[in-house]
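User: Is it possible to get a 3D structure for a protein together with its bound compound? The compound here is 6-O-phosphono-beta-D-fructofuranose. I've pasted both below.
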Amino acid sequence: MNDLKREDFEVKKLGKATILSPIYKNYKEAAPDKEYIDDSRRIIYDASLDAFNSAKSSEEEPISFLKAGARKDIYFDPSKTKAAIVTCGGLCPGINNVIRGLVNGLYYRYNVKNIWGIQYGYQGFISDYGHEMVKLTPNVVKDIHLFGGTILGSSRGRQDISAMVDTLERENINILFTIGGDGTLSGNHVIQQEIERRGLKIATAGIPKTIDNDVNFMTKTFGFDTAFTTAASIVRDAHNEATGAYNGVAIVKLMGRDSGFIAANAALAMPDVNFVLIPESKFDMYGPKGFLNELKKRVDERHHALVVVAEGAGQHLFEEGDEVLDKSGNVKHKDIGVYLKDEINKFFADENMEATVKYIDPSYIIRSEVAIPADSVFCNDLALNAVHGAMAGFTDFVVGRWHNQFTYLPIPVATASRKKIDIDGPLWWSVLETTGQPINMYNE
Ligand SMILES: Nc1ncnc2c1ncn2[C@@H]1O[C@H](COP(=O)(O)OP(=O)(O)OP(=O)(O)O)[C@@H](O)[C@H]1O
Ligand SMILES: O=P(O)(O)OC[C@H]1O[C@](O)(CO)[C@@H](O)[C@@H]1O
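Assistant: Yes, that's possible. Here is the predicted structure of the complex:
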């Protein structure tokens, strides 16, 4: 549970917004009767009614979220505004759509024409790496949604915060958009603190990126729909592999460092799956009611079985040892897919049972996919709302979607903890029902 209070949900602002937004002028002319968003517009939720534990404040009081959208008055003068965009961490479908949406939103809606891309993540702020900033215009980004990945490149690894803010200052950047996961957003927050310490008026806005869908107070993050849609078709093909052999077992490993949302949703979309293993639930492997024996029962009955495993699942099965970390300090999980394949092979050999085990790891293929249409639309909306918020002078915020509304949330609230599957909640119970996997395979 988060130890968050109501006041933690207040989004910071650089100062009073005093410039009449160009959108407002045009919008008023085009549709004078339409409502316009006032700064104080907030969406109030009764947290005690919320299905997500993570939505509760520590005091169980209603939490209010700042509603995203265009403001009548803006903080930055568009003709004098310079914006920069950076993408960090792992790839995710839709990053290029977000970049495109940011550039077009700034350029066409607000008339901000001085837009730059920082190359290869936070490295791009550090001159030693030699990554030049690239000028972004609608013409440069017009086709980038047709490609997966990020046209700006990405990276992991800590950079010197002071040196990064030196670059922002030297380049006279007024708004920084960071597209990235938990780490990128934490980095954004630290950058913002240094900006404040120096008394600079630079707005920072985060667009949360993770196929794992594990960001707090976000119904979903961009790229997640594409990820599990792509995963579902791979799971279907794996099912064909499993059924194509007598006692065929197919294992598909999907991403999900701490949360099993991709695995759970792919299995719901493709109900041929017999077992879903996720990080949120420690399963028993070897006991009489453990995974291997349950798998055997399934194979005995139908002569094939399909297993979907999230990369962070089953880590308790490995011997404790030195943790391997990536450049950013994230734990690199031991390969549960290979472990399952080996253990299943051994188990069936010990049982004198013929079995054909196929292991499929499509992780990077899924992550670098092009966004499906639903995600493309979502990316564009997120980007536009990030532009609205930053132009209004909000800072240190992330844009997201929660309870069918686009919202602005202070970064520390979004990064306070990770969203996980509630194993007593409806999503996991649907998975158990769909797969038919026994509930007592789980220790906890
Ligand atoms: N607390 C922090 N302070 C400063 N920089 C940070 C912090 N946490 C992470 N970063 C930096 O943010 C960048 C991205 O972090 P990271 O590699 O963890 O990816 P991420 O944004 O979490 O995305 P993914 O979900 O794909 O892992 C890296 O350059 C990392 O060093
Ligand atoms: O191989 P990389 O680039 O370190 O990324 C792997 C990580 O990326 C994620 O998809 C998060 O973006 C995790 O699920 C996974 O652990």
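Residues 6-221+371-414 form a domain with the Rossmann fold fold (CATH 3.40.50.450). The CA atoms of residues 161 and 187 lie 8 Å apart.
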